[in-house]
């Protein structure tokens, strides 16, 4: 007699990808029991506001939470919070996981949505504030979780001099927030430009100028040698050029490291960028799925540079998690969405769709100095991305064009007298390989 028991699913990681995967499973009609495990004490919540409006007191905690307890109960999902999975064993039929508290969770299907952890500053005296860390340096912060934001927010509101180490999206968002709260803000970036590897050089330069116009000091090609600590509190940052920046608060935003420990424990293929998955978000064992910040897989967007890609965005986590849920439910559906992203840096809003990496031509549309412009990136004559500041209509037009597999002729794109939506045309058929 065949066992008709519904398959039990364990989802490890209760961030954006985890909650999206659980949601997608139920939308796909899967009715098997699901356990969603998160190591934070809070239920799943939105992370983007943490480095922006939440720090400025414009969101309360309750407004960040995705769903109340009733939502999980109604869908037959057991939510486990504040209890990290520390070990997993599995075979072809399923397996079991153990948590920090000693709990055992048996499963038939496994999803890893373990996210990423912040890189720490590899310099002397840099001990970030964390719960239960008795030797933490007061005033030295990084931000990834709600608890991180809760520790940083009150200090940021009192600070007069803030140094942000790292000129990525998070660092620039925090620097803009500190400035709006009345502090002097300095961004220290070791690379030759801001947002290195994330955006085009043209957008990086425009963003730097925009921040400097607002009073933020930006130091490029400059590293941090030491956090100056007096009586257990950060008082400044010593730089590679020998100078020291005084600070009431030091915030470190130098990127993240994918959390792949459990995947490695299972013997899955892992590389420095994450757990290796295929277009269906399935890992190397052909059974486990992985999605979000912890995973690296085929470029979901067919234009531009190919090769393994790891993206960090809400849209990516949601879309890849849907592919993972489809694979678990037995209805594989390749993840092939156009990547899109936004960043609010004070009153400066960046919107991006596609991937500009590998572009051989960039068209400027609008006025970068006036902060109303778009950069359209092309490769081999084909539109591959848009990066917009203060130009939402351009962003939406290109995003929709890319989603439909269409393009915009480069020579016509710079003419702001013609709306981009009127310039969308069929993309040429790919030539023989």
From TrEMBL:
Coiled-coil parts of chain: none
Organism: Terrabacter terrae
Cofactor: FAD
Domain FAD/NAD(P)-binding: start-end pairs: 9-321
Methyltransferase among keywords: no
Family matches, as InterPro entries: FAD-oxidoreductase/Apoptosis, FAD/NAD-bd_sf, FAD/NAD-binding_dom, FAD/NAD-linked_Rdtase_dimer_sf, Reductase_C
Annotated ranges, domain Reductase C-terminal: 340-423
Record key words, sorted: FAD, Flavoprotein, Oxidoreductase
Name this polypeptide is given: FAD-dependent oxidoreductase
